[in-house]
Structure formats: structure tokens, C-alpha cells
Amino acid sequence: MEVPPEQSWGPVLVRRQPxxxxxxxxxxxxxxxxxxxxxxxxxxxxxxxxxxxxxxxxGYRLREDLVGDVMSGLVIGIILVPQAIAYSLLAGLQPxxxxxxxxxxxxxxxxMGTSRHVSVGIFSxxxxxxxxxxxxxLLLAGFDPAQDGPGPRHNSSTFNASAAMLALGLQxxxxxxxxxxxxxxxxxxxxxxxxxxxxLRLGFVSxxxxxxxxxxxxxGASVTILTSQLRHLLGVRVPRHQGPGMVVSTWLSLLRSAGxxxxxDVLTSAVCLAVLLAAKELSDRxxxxxxxxxxxxxxxxxxxxxASHLGQFHERFGxxxxxxxxxxFMAPRVPDPGLMQRVALDxxxxxxxxxxxxxxxAEMFARSHSYSVRANQELLAxxxxxxxxxFFHCFATSAALAKSLVKTxxxxxxxxxxxxxxxxxxxxxxxxxxxxxxxxxxxxxCVIVVSLRGALRKVRDVPQLWQLSPADALVWVxxxxxxxxxxxxxxxxxGVLLSxxxxxxxxxxxxxxxxxxxxxxxxxxxxxxFEGLVPEPGVRVFRFAGPxxxxxKDFFLKSLYSLTGLDAxxxxxxxxxxxxxxxxxxxxxxxxxxxxxxxxxxxxVPTAGSFHAVVIDCAPMLFLDxxxxxxxxxxxxxxxxxxxxxxxACCSPAVREALRRGGFLGDDQGDTAxxxxxxxxxxSAVQAAQARHRERAAADxxx
Length: 703
Description:
By secondary structure, this protein is mainly alpha-helical. Helix content is about 60%, strand content about 5%. The protein has a 6-stranded mixed β-sheet with strand order 4-3-5-6-7-8. Strands 1-2 form a two-stranded antiparallel sheet. Residues about 1-10, about 150-165 and about 580-610 have low confidence and may be disordered. It holds the Pfam family Sulfate_transp. It is found in: Membrane. It is a multi-pass membrane protein.
């Protein structure tokens, strides 16, 4: 291969011949042929991929793993029972349905999940989102969502509800029946969305829900949850508001009804909150000494149930209680297609939130314990945890951080612990559920409020996040504020839009600097940031720390022109109008005043120096689109009209390929054309520019 003289000092790279590429049709045919090929080995691999438990169960180590799995499963099961009963308040459903959900979710994720430590089940944020949809549909059907348990209630809406049921074709279906039908329809659709996302390999989509967005969403949703539980803590009857401003409207209703608070519920709430918060603080401080976390919620619920039963709080003081919780399982039922049409849009944010939390938690625990998970399989697992249980009167589930941390701390090794947890829930379903009949709803609200401590404490991270990244802090605050002031769905949408705008803003105005040489080395750095750097005479080295595409091409040119002091486009046009074809030499300087990359254009100010070449450091340039290619074409043309050489250095393979396809290298698409314009280092490009300038100077002196 013939090498140009100006590059004879550097190493020679010989390009490999690229393999023959198949067309799109051939590629699709090959993939379809592989996927449709049937064999015993392929069927076995497919089953193991869909049900990872069939693979890792064969290598299960009884001596090493069984004790930890049984212990963590028992602890999680003990925690699940009170949380399941409590979270039914958020979803606006009866406690039995929360127990069903916890049971089926643990079994299905045991078979299909790829994470060893994640606990999948009821999650407060999802319960809130389900509850908001259930309340809305109950109102539209003529029911009163505030009638959520035994206690004082009004029956003024009974006739309207019956008429609405007849119109919807749901005869012999009361409030609780209609509520669970709405929840199962919503859950089935959310699960179908998640399964389709897994089949289409869209696990990467959850990565666009950034951690600041998820933290802000959790904070805003926690404030909404806290607001929704205040009526249970105070024992007052207020309407369950819907739509934008629900939190503010609820607070106003609570202030107007504060004088009607149930004294029994208020005292019970105060005692339970004090005990739970004190126990949580003690557990946090002594967590290194405690091998097993204290089952505080279960102990409080048992004591409160016993006190309520013996003191007859419901009969004597009108305190709202959980009511009758049946045992056993109900017959499966297909979710109502008519209701599925009504909640189809509501299932979209539910599916995305559940997927994002589940995948992020699975990846977090996988990194901390040195194993890998498959995001697409996690989508399938969580989706099936919603699709299949929806036929058994269950509602939406996902991974939960608090229970997953407890699971890890108590020695969990595999998902066999989920089977143990499901067995504990099954015991409650078959025998122990009726014992919680007299449990006050204010106690369940206390359990929910205390579980929000972790999410509410995230507000303390905002100052540090602001110092690290103001854009991420803005996303956090905007997401949380929109969740509180408007709605959780609007908060999620605002967070996603702001995250995308933040990403676009960072690439639209990236940092642009001129580089200078570090002593006698072959390395170059920012001349403004570091002292003692040596500028190359006659050569301007420009670095643009971002991709070059349609949104930032104008900023690219403004930055380059202002830093070099020459508006090449304007000067080339002016010389063309004058009819002057003279290049730039020492007698015709083109260097101007440095106006900074933010100025609109450069002003031509004659100085003592001049430059004959511009080298663009393309190392930070991730990609190049058609607009960016046109910008480089115009830039080379304008610089060429002024006698200035434009060279590119450190181009990535993607940028080199784009330049080659766009014809930037000329008609000769071989290695010689590329080596004459593209360089593997800034220093080699600078040396080539100096060598070419000396050759032209020598030729001019000869003439």
C-alpha cells in the first residue's frame, strides 16, 4: 500500500476486508429459519429460557442454600401478611385479594424470574395507581368509593349503582365485586403490555426512566399515598377525590372534616405510629447486630386486633375495621372485556412503572452479588405475574425494594425463598385470615405510612443531586411536584419528557474548546483549563465534545468560528463577491478576536498571526447524521476557498463509515483517500498539516 510522504513517520494500519453483508431479506429469512427449526435440544433450551428455575434447581446446594432460603422466606412471609392486608386500602379492594396477589406472584416469579434476591408482590406505588382507577370507575358506576369497610356509611347511592350495573350488564355485582373486576381488567392489560415488551426485546426501554425520575416519582407518589391514608388515621369520612389536584382537594376536605375525627382511631393511630417508628429507628441502628429484622408490623397488628376485639371498638366507638376475610380460594373468572376497553390507557403507565422498578432492582442486586439477569426475561416474568393471577382475582404486582433488602439481609440465596413465603401466605388464606376481622383500618394505615419512610427521606438527596447534576435535580423536583399537584400519571409523563429534553440539551450545546500541545509530547488538552500548554503555530485544534447532528450544527459552527476568530462562511462569500481567489498567508491574516463559543459570529480582526490548517478532534463525536455531514462539506469548501486545510482526527468507526458513505473522502474511497484526510491522533494530523504547509511554501518560493 502506498503511503503519502507526510505520514511516513507513523505506524501503518492495514484494513481488514469486511465480510460480505447479507441483505435485509436474507437476514430475516435466516433468523426465521433458526427460530422455526424444531429439535429436542432447541425445545429444552426454550423451556429453560422461559422457566429459569428448571435450570438452577438441578444444581441447588441443599447444605449451603436451604437454611438461608427458608429463613428469608419465613421472614418475608411474616412481613407480607400485614402489608398485604394494609395495602388493600390503597387499591380500594378487600384484604383477601391482596393475599391472593402475594401468593400467586411469589410462585410465578419463582419459576420465571432471573434475579435471585428480588421480592415480587404488592407494591405501594402500584396499589395507589390501581386504587385511583378503581375509584374513578366506581364513581362512574354510581358507587361511593368512600364506603370501603364496615362502619358508618350512607346508602344514598344504592339505587344509582344498581341502575349503572344494569346499564353495564353487571347484574348481581356489588361495590366490592365491581372493584375487583376493574382491578383484574387493569392488571391483565398491564401484564399483556409487559409480555409483549418482553417478546419484542424492549427491556432496554426501562433504561429511559432514569434513577432521578424514579426517585422523584416515588417521592411524589408517597406524598399522595400519605394523603390518602390520613382519613383512616383520623377516622373521618371524606370523599375520595379524582383528577388533577387530588392531593390538594383531599387536604382541604380533611381540614373541613377535622372536627369529626374519631377519637378512638386517632388514639390508636398515635400509639401505633409511635411504636412502629421507634421500632424502625431501633432496627436501623442495630441492623448489624440483628440477624433477623424485628417483625414489628405483625406484632402491632396482632396486638391491635386483640385490643379491638376485646374492647369492641367497632361496636362501641364506630371505628372502621377490616371486616370478614374469607378463607380458601374463589373460582377463577375471566376479566371483563368491556372494562378492559375502559382502562386500556390506564394500564400503560402501570406497566411501565412496574417494569422499570422490577428491572432496575433486579440489575442492582445482580451487580452487588456478581451475577447477571436478563431484562427481557424479567419483563416476561413480571408480565406473567400480572396476566395469570388476573384470572384469580389478583391485581398488579412488581418488585419491591424494602422486601428485597430484607430478603437479602436474612440470607436469601435463591428464589426458593419465594415458595416458602407463598406457603406462609397460603396458611393465612386457608386458616388464619378470619382472625383479622376486628383489625382497625387506622392500624393498617399506620403500617402503610411507616413503610413510606424510605421514599420520603429521598428529599434529603436533592441538594447533593443538584451539586452533581442540576438537570437531574430538576427532573427529580418536577416529577415529584407534578405527582403531588396534578396526578401520578402526569408526573411520570413530565419526568420522561424532562429527561429526554435534558439529554437533548446536553448534546445540543456540548463543550467546545481549542487544544494546545502538552510540552514536547504528542498529547493535546484544553488551553483554557490548563496552563503552560504550547499552541501549534499556524494550526488550530478544535474539540467538540458531542455528536454533530441537525440540532447542534449551528452551535458547532458558531463555536468554531468564534474560537478561531474567523467566520469562514462569511469571509469566503465576501471574497467570492470581490472576485478575490487569494489564499491566506502571513501577509493576509485571518485570525480574529476570541469571542467565546457562545457568540453568534466571529468578527474579523487582523492580528500578527495567522493559521493555515484546522484540525477537528472527533474523539468525543459519537455519531454524524446527514445535517452534520453537510456541515463538514460546507466547512471544508469555505476553508478551501480561503486556502485553509481541514483535517479530522480520532474519528470513531461509526463516524469514519458515515464519512465514507457520504462521499466526504472523495471519489477515491480507498485507504489512500482516507489516510490523507483522517488521522488516528491529533498529533499526527498536526504534523501532516505542518508538512503540507512547508511543501506549499517551498513550492511558492521556487515559483
